[in-house]
């Protein structure tokens, strides 16, 4: 992948994470394809379409306070107009007075359209969540 493509995909992923971490769900929506599919952790089900996808982020942001979020070990592969972004994360958040530590791997698939990258598919792997 050339440096410009790598920077563009990296920037899009950074914008997505920054948007939901700051509770800016409308901004997140600008980076999501209207027909996005999310496979729920453990392949327990699927969400199809941007409205339901964004609702999950909105509900989390409204019910939880994020104290820490770190992403690392990012890997990006591009083939034609498709890019796959995977990274590990660790997060400390609080919900209903209880703190939780979550970690795992986030995997996103992007499609390049007119020079922009839109998320078209996502899943979370190796997820662990414990009371902190």
Describe this structure in words.
By secondary structure, the chain is an alpha+beta fold. It has helices at 3-21, 25-29, 50-63; strands at 32-39, 46-48, 64-79, 82-95, 98-113, 116-131. The protein has a 6-stranded mixed β-sheet with strand order 2-1-6-5-4-3. β3 and β4 (82-95) form a beta hairpin.
Summarize the helices and strands and which ones pair or pack.
Elements lengths: L2 H19 L3 H5 L2 E8 L6 E3 L1 H14 E16 L2 E14 L2 E16 L2 E16 L1
Parallel strand pairs: 1-6
Antiparallel strand pairs: 1-2, 3-4, 4-5, 5-6
Uncertain spans, ≥5 residues at pLDDT below 50? none
Task: Let me know the number of strands.
Answer: 6
Percentage of residues in DSSP E strands: over 45%
User: What integer is the average pLDDT?
Assistant: 95
